[in-house]
Amino acid sequence: xxxxxxxxxxxxxxxxxxxxxTIRAFxxxxxxxxxxxxxxxxxxxxxxxxxxxxxxxxxxxxxxxAFLGELPVExxxxxxxxxxxxxxxxxxxELALRGGGHFDERVLWSGIDGEVDALRxxxxxxxxxxxSHGIPFAERPLRPHLTLAxxxxxxxxxxxxxxxxxxxxxxxPWTTARLHLVGSNIGRGPGPIRYRDIxxxxxxxx
Length: 206
Description:
The chain has helices spanning 33-49, 77-88, 116-132, 157-165; strands spanning 22-29, 54-55, 63-72, 94-103, 107-114, 145-150, 174-175, 178-184, 195-202. The protein is of the alpha+beta class. The mean pLDDT is 88.
């Protein structure tokens, strides 16, 4: 019999965190990098002047077509093939970023110019597709925009001043390349909101 002390027991590996049962999702368009860089350059004075605003990351800028809200994860995969078919049958749109404004002195945005009527028609088709799959969502009127920043509690002047600074901004035209199904981590931790593509599909119609 060995008189060596027993080896210490190995601590069990921590169990993996359970996968979330829901996901917050939306369907959107994303400007190309060149268009976002133009707007970021125009925003630089406001970013420098108002670092206290909660600025969205440039890679997260998007034009929401349908905000689906918090969904059970199992209802998302059936949307993929229909959204792919919708994108394949639609031509790219020509849009541009233009000007700026705010919602209730709390949310800073940049406006959308170009084929806005066609953009509204696309949003209508996307929303009808979602409804046809039995997914309820808030039917908010479409106000095409990019959300850029949010004010912290008690700060209204930063957003209004930043919007005024964008009043003369007109970006170069660009075409929509893809339709994006996006998920976010909102409500899942103390950090900032982050977005990721669940999947995206090219516009291939003529």
